[in-house]
Amino acid sequence: MNMQLRSVFLTLPLLSLYQPAALADRDHEAPRHQPPPRHTTPKHMQRAPSSGRLEVEKIILGGRGLQGTRIEVRYRLIDVKEFPAHPMTTSIVDDQSRQLIQISKLPMLVAPVPAEKAASTPPGKLYFWDQEGIIKPGSKISVMVAGLASLHLPVEAGPDYDPAAAQVAEAVIEKPKLPADATLKVHQVKDSGNGLLNVWFSTTGVDAITAGAEHTYVINQKTGEKLPVLRVPRIGLLAPKHLEHTDGSFMVINNQGRQVKRGDHITVVVVGLEQPDVLVE
């Protein structure tokens, strides 16, 4: 990756995780000098139009593979007229670690159903992959599907979940061994204004970022939340595979929801090397 990619990162489309739903129209009251029309619903029972809700039936932790531990989310979309955000903003967040796990490919969302038919409608399924083995049976996570959220939900172990296999997989992605004189220098971090952070950095003693970028991310110093490298369908991680560029390297961090803003301080981690107190411009 070279300096020319810097401008590409700054023009990536908006994929903000927390885009607000469309505002409902305000009720229009009849003029005081006119009596209210007959056969209307009493005002205290009227409901403003809404974008519906996400109902999560169950979250199941499955087996461990090359992509990580499989997490199955069974869900329904109830009374949804329009989605507040793009389907690629679908993700889950571990409540304890604040680790964000994005959907790996564009999801085919189930058709919305009216509330009265929800109980008789089979749930749809979404799959996420926990590369770092953070989520365990009993964990609480929050689910976001195209801007609709369901918060603080319990995770249960599925029939193919193997704790021993999960521990072995976690050992595989331990921090790579680096030379004692390996260094990281962050030249600049810029908030692009569309839910992305553009990081310009240089390293010595580090040849490449690992395939899953398990040890390359940004830490929000206010909350301790880890923000991962952005992964784009059909392209992969927006980070360099090799770190041999004399003018530095660039990577794009997923800052959906604008957790980190200009003026904040973050810690940049590249293959386990850390530089704290980096100002976001």
UniProtKB/TrEMBL annotation:
The keyword Signal applies. Residues 1-24 form the signal peptide. The lineage of its organism: Bacteria, Pseudomonadati, Pseudomonadota, Gammaproteobacteria, sulfur-oxidizing symbionts. This is Uncharacterized protein. Residues 27-51 are annotated as: Disordered. Keywords: Signal.
